[in-house]
Amino acid sequence: MPEKKLGMGILGCGPISQFAHFESVQKSRNAVLAAVCDADEGLANHFGRFYDAKNIYLDYDQMLADPHVEAIIIGIADAFHVPAALKALAAGKHVLCEKPVGVAVEEVEELDAAVRKSGKILQIGHMLRFDPGIESAKDFISTRMGRCWR
């Protein structure tokens, strides 16, 4: 029996999607590019066709309504990450959101509550999580810097 592939939708056809997300989904063994969406019709059509997306959308709500889209990659401007993620969760989709997840603590707390309520997975696309420099900084903060008290 063939392995089921996760239907991915990519929101935003800008630089981060061009340099990372399209190719990653295309090379994945367990995912298929079910849809792309961008307000710029030229970008949406170009990258949707180039990466053989099953559907191309200019409207995010239409992509969210597509039953073949099971997860959304959010690669749009930072200020729109949380609103787009909230809509995806409300539509029953898993979410990979580019960093930063939000631009204000309050909106990220709202997103956290929505994730818990939805039962869906939200992951932040932070490719440096296991970078040696980042790990070294974390270790320094945790072990040698100590706690800061106000």
How would you portray this structure in words?
It is a single chain. With 150 residues, the chain is of the alpha/beta class. The chain has one domain: 3-Layer(aba) Sandwich (Rossmann fold). It has helices spanning 15-27, 41-50, 60-65, 81-90, 105-118, 132-145; strands spanning 6-11, 31-37, 55-57, 71-74, 94-98, 122-125. Strands 3-2-1-4-5-6 form a six-stranded parallel β-sheet, with helices on both faces. α5 (105-118) links the parallel β5 and β6.
Q: Please give the domain count.
A: 1
What is the fold named in CATH at topology level?
A: Rossmann fold
- Overall shape: globular
CATH homologous superfamily, by name?
Answer: NAD(P)-binding Rossmann-like Domain
Produce the secondary structure layout.
Elements: E1 6-11, H1 15-27, E2 31-37, H2 41-50, E3 55-57, H3 60-65, E4 71-74, H4 81-90, E5 94-98, H5 105-118, E6 122-125, H6 132-145
Parallel strand pairs: 1-2, 1-4, 2-3, 4-5, 5-6
List keywords for this structure.
alpha/beta, 150 residues, Rossmann fold, six-stranded parallel sheet, 19% strand, globular
Compact description:
With 150 residues, this protein is an alpha/beta fold. The chain has six helices and six strands.
